[in-house]
């Protein structure tokens, strides 16, 4: 029973209720988007305001932490640590994850594939500290030593499901007609997969890998009893190592204002690193798609 | 056993069985199933070398299915099964010991929608020869020849390294044809190659087919009866039977199919009374 405001123009009736409903739903959408976006923006602003002073402190990027009570000091140990731990973790996880993703998409329409998918989904849902326990049991206990490598192993396992599902999704989106075109030329299946399908999906695969790296860089729990933390600048992956997330965790719990400020600054740096990785991924995909 | 023997009498029309006629592709009593659903029933077709054979019929009559059996593309669909024989130079394509890779090199395919790889124009045409391990000089030569054969060379010779996706629809389809020609096949299967093209691009493809049939055997599936009558030498009319399985109703020289159809169903179809 729609109400119509019939104007002077013949045949140009104005559906009042439809216009109202349109306005109402449009407003609702704006409201929902705001509710979702505002906390994120507030959080970013908060981190920025609290972190910027610490970041601008001389020595923040160039010094190791000073002993407690000594003013100054930076987080260079943690920057190196985060890059190294995530770097080694990615070297472990990306090739394996991409290969499993290729298997799932191209050869995994069967029971084996479903089992792998199921296990991967279970892994995605595990609390991240469980991966820390994995790194601890597999590497730390066997080498009797906290080390960056044990953290990399823990993060690699954490990244694996993200990478393999992203790879599979990207490959499944490649139109079947491309596979058929390759096969119809007399190309073997594996060559079509590696030379046609994977390049066509490269953007999605790289994005998935970068997003997994960004997520791993922000993880704290898996590092607690693997990398352990280290206030000395350490580059040897077999030794305990600091990380930005560990700096935030530790410094946030101490009563010294200068260390708390450092925690805020480390948080800001981590946010910038993760955001930069995400933006990089997007730029890369856009360039590939052109 | 005796009954099956009598059933195996030739169904193909007599003119194609002359001794001096070269049969390139000979499908005999092909049955095909998608799972439990039978899509083809006792379909036979004798394709003459260096001629154009058209498959026509209403949607769902199994034309494309039939075509894809000729180079075993149906292997890609899980749960499919084919019986009968498809002889390519007297070797049964459907037998398990067929080298499918080699078969597909001999029997190339052009698809309904142009499907160039997201690579450069050059790399698209070079992909087949590259797979075969030809030398750089050979590949360069075959790329140029194939592009010339499809009338693309003059249009793209200055931008061979540019992405194939920037070409127009008609150019893309001709590029796909060039790509198929580059591995020097003997037979080219075309699955409604012009259905997504405008009339001018369609005309280009049809002209090319006339050129190509001097060297290649062509089988084309088309929805377009005018196209079949324009381009083909032989036409097979297919139709679903009561159980929805496709059958070859009539197979004759194109002129006979369109002017003197023997089967009333063929006549009904070509005069537009159904389908």
Q: What are the salient characteristics of this protein?
A:
heterodimer, A: 290 residues, mainly alpha, two-stranded antiparallel sheet, 73% helix, B: 275 residues, alpha/beta, six-stranded mixed β-sheet, four-stranded antiparallel β-sheet, 10 strands, 25% strand, globular, disordered N terminus
H and E string of chain A? EEHHHHHHHHHHH
Oligomer: heterodimer
Which whole number gives the mean pLDDT of chain A? 90
Distance between the termini of chain A: 50 Å
Strand content of chain B: 25-35%
Helix content of chain B: 25-40%
Query: Outline of chain A, from the CA principal axes?
Result: globular
Strand content of chain A: under 5%
Biggest interface between chains? A-B, 19 and 26 residues
Q: Determine Rg of chain B (CA atoms, Å).
A: 19 Å
Biggest beta sheet summary of chain B? 6 strands, mixed
- What is the end-to-end distance of chain B? 38 Å
How many beta strands in the DSSP annotation of chain A? Answer: 2
Strand order of the largest sheet of chain A: 1-2
Q: Output the helix-strand order of chain B.
A: HEEEHEEHEHHHHEHEHEEHH
Structural class of chain A: mainly alpha
**How confident is the prediction overall: mean pLDDT of chain B?**
90
The structure class of chain B reads alpha/beta
Characterization of the model:
The complex is a heterodimer of chains A (290) and B (275). Chain A is mainly α and 290 residues long. Chain A has eleven helices and two strands; from the N terminus they run E-E-H-H-H-H-H-H-H-H-H-H-H. In chain A, strands 1-2 form a two-stranded antiparallel sheet. In chain A, helix 2 (76-107) runs parallel beside helix 5, helix 2 (76-107) packs antiparallel against helix 8 and helix 3 crosses helix 5. In chain B, helix 8 links the parallel strand 7 and strand 8. Chain B has helices at 2-7, 63-69, 100-106, 121-131, 136-149, 153-156, 169-181, 199-212, 225-231, 254-259, 264-270, and strands at 23-34, 37-48, 52-56, 80-88, 91-92, 107-110, 187-191, 217-221, 234-240, 246-253. Chain B is built from eleven helices and ten strands. In chain B, the strands form two sheets. In chain B, strands 6-7-8-3-9-10 form a six-stranded mixed sheet, with helices on both faces. Chain B has 275 residues and is of the alpha/beta class. Chains A and B meet through helix 6 and helix 7 of A and helix 3, helix 4 and helix 7 of B.
């Amino acid at each position: 029973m729609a109400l119509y405001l019939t104007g002077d123009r013949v045949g140009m009736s104005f559906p009042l209720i439809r216009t109202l409903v349109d306005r109402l739903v449009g407003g609702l959408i704006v409201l929902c988007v705001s509710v979702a976006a505002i906390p994120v923006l507030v959080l970013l602003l908060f981190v920025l305001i609290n972190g910027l002073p610490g970041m601008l402190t001389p020595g923040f990027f160039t010094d190791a932490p000073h002993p407690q009570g000594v003013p100054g000091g930076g987080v260079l140990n943690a920057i190196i640590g985060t890059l190294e731990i995530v770097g080694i973790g990615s070297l472990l996880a990306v090739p394996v994850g991409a290969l499993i993703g290729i298997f799932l998409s191209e050869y995994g329409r069967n029971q084996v594939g479903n089992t792998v998918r199921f296990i991967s989904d279970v892994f995605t849902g595990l609390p991240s500290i469980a991966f820390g326990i994995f790194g601890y049991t597999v590497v730390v206990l066997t080498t009797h030593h906290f080390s960056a490598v044990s953290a990399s192993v823990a993060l690699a396992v954490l990244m694996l499901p993200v990478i393999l599902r992203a790879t599979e999704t990207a490959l499944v989106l490649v139109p079947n007609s491309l596979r058929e075109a390759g096969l119809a030329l007399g190309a073997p299946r594996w060559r079509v997969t590696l030379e046609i399908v994977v390049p066509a999906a490269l953007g999605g695969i790289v994005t998935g890998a970068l997003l997994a790296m960004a997520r791993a860089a922000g993880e704290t729990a898996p590092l607690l009893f693997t990398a352990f933390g280290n206030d000395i600048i350490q580059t040897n992956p077999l030794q305990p190592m600091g990380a930005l997330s560990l700096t935030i965790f530790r410094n946030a719990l101490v009563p010294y204002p200068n260390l708390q400020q450092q925690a805020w600054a480390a948080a800001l740096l981590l946010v910038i690193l993760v955001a930069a990785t995400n933006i990089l991924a997007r730029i890369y995909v856009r360039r590939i798609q052109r | 056993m005796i009954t099956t023997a009598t059933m195996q009498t030739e169904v193909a029309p007599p003119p194609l069985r002359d001794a001096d006629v070269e049969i390139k592709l000979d499908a005999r009593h092909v049955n095909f199933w998608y799972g439990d659903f039978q899509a083809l029933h006792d379909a036979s077709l004798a394709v003459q070398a260096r001629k154009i054979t058209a498959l026509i019929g209403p949607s769902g009559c199994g034309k494309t299915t039939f075509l894809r059996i000729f180079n075993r593309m149906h292997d890609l669909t899980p749960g499919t099964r084919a019986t009968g024989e498809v002889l390519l130079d007297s070797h049964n394509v459907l037998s398990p010991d067929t080298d499918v890779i080699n078969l597909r090199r001999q029997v190339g395919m052009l698809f309904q929608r142009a499907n160039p790889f997201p690579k450069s124009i050059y790399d698209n045409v070079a992909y087949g020869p590259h797979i075969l391990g030809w030398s750089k000089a050979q590949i360069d030569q075959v790329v140029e020849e194939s592009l010339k054969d499809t009338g693309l060379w003059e249009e793209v010779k200055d931008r061979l390294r540019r992405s194939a996706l920037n070409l127009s629809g008609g150019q893309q389809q001709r590029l796909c044809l060039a790509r198929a020609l580059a591995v020097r096949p003997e037979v080219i299967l075309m699955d409604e190659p012009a259905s997504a093209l405008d009339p001018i691009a369609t005309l280009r493809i049809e002209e090319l087919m006339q050129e190509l049939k001097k060297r290649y055997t062509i089988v084309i599936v088309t929805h377009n009866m005018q196209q079949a009558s324009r381009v083909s030498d032989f036409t097979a009319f297919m139709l679903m039977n009561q159980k929805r399985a496709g059958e070859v109703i009539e197979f004759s020289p194109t002129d006979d199919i369109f002017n003197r159809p023997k089967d009333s169903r063929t006549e009904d179809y070509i005069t537009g009374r159904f389908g």
